[in-house]
Amino acid sequence: MKKRFAYYPGCSLETTAASYHVSAVETAAALGVEFVEVEDWNCCGATSYSGIDDLLAHTLCARNLAIAEREGLDVVAPCSACFKNLHSANQHLKDEPDLAEHINFALEADDLRYSGTGHVQHLIHLFVGEVGLDAIKARVKHPLKGLKVAPYYGCMLVRPRRHDEWDKPDVRFFEDLLRAIGADPVEFAFRMRCCGASLVATNRKAALGLIRDILHNARQSGAEVISTTCPLCQLNLEAYQDAVNREFGTDYHIPVVYFTQLMGVAFGISSKKLGFGGEFVPATPVLACAAREAAAAKASHGPKVTTK
Amino acid sequence: MVATAWTKPSFEQEITNEMYLTGTRGLNCCIQCATCTAACPAVEYMDMGPRKLIGLIKAGLRDEVLESNTFWVCASCFACSTHCPKGIKPSELMYVLKRYSMWKNRFRKDLVGPDFSRLFVRTIAKTGKSYEPGYAPAFIFEGGLGGLLREMQWGMKLLAKGRLALIPARIKRLKNFRQMLSRVIPLEGIA
Question: Which of A57, A241, B5, B55 has the fewest CB atoms below 10 angstroms from its CB?
Answer without folding.
Answer: B5
